[in-house]
Amino acid sequence: MTQYQTMIGIVVKEGVNLQSMNLFRKSRLTGWLPQLNYQVWILATGRLLSQMGSGFTLFYAPIFFVNQVGLSATAVGMGLGSQSILGMVGRVMGGSLSDGRFGRQRTLLVSAVVSAIACFILAVATNFSVFVIGNLLLGFGTGLYWPSAEAMVADLSTPAQRSEAFALNRLCDSLGWDWGLSWGGC
Questions:
Q1: Which strand (E) or helix (H) includes residue 38?
Q2: Residue ranges of the domains in the chain?
Q3: Torsion sign, CA atoms 48, 51, 57, 60
Q4: Is residue 115 within 8 Å of 145, Cβ to Cβ?
Q5: 37 forms bridges with which residues in the sheet?
Q6: pLDDT for residue 28
Q7: pLDDT (tens digit, 9 = 90+) per residue, 14-51?
Q8: CA-to-CA distance for 164 and 122, rounded, in angstroms?
Q9: Rg of the chain's alpha carbons, rounded to an integer?
Q10: CA–CA distance, 183 with 57 (Å, rounded to integer)
């Protein structure tokens, strides 16, 4: 590949201006938006949607598991809190995997698969043990996600754009979480 270079799993022809790979071109409507790589915008949109789902679910999970499944409020609180136990392990492993031979994209894929399995387990949970197993797996999957996602944002942005790229992603995290909790309570 003499006239091509690989950047984050994408083959780019040499001489291609990576700045031209922006999702939003300067116009009167979108000129105020940061001119970032389109993949940063995709990650930010994914975070917004994911956090909306998390916020919405966090609002309804205690109500559902207490009223429909029959768990006590204390058990539900302990089960939801158990996510952080394997979440810490997932973050350490996620950082090691994404920086190592496994790579960022594969780590994100494993994170999505583990989180999907955890959500399925939570959907069929009928007792405290299964509820805790689902939450532990969800915490692990979420923990795997964050180091790889943060590293990808850094990889996809130039040093001059890095602050804006991280700010956009954090804004989407916060808005998604807030909107999910708010709409869950409506």
A1: helix 38-67
A2: 61-159
A3: negative
A4: yes
A5: 22
A6: 62
A7: 544 444 454 445 566 656 666 787 888 888 998 899 88
A8: 36
A9: 19
A10: 10
In the chain, DSSP finds a helix count (H) and a strand count (E) of: 6, 2
* Extended strands (E) in the chain: 4-7, 10-13
pTM greater than 0.85 (yes/no): no
Beta strands 4-7 and 10-13: pairing type?
antiparallel
* Tokens linked to 48: 């917004």
Residues 102, 117 contacting (CB under 8 angstroms): no
Token reading at 62: 């205690």
Q: Which residues of the chain have pLDDT under 70?
A: 1-34
Q: CA angle, 86 as apex, 83 and 92 as ends, to 5°?
A: 130
Q: Dihedrals φ, ψ of 147, to 5°?
A: -60, -40
Q: How far is residue 97's CA from residue 67's CA, in Å, rounded to a whole number?
A: 40
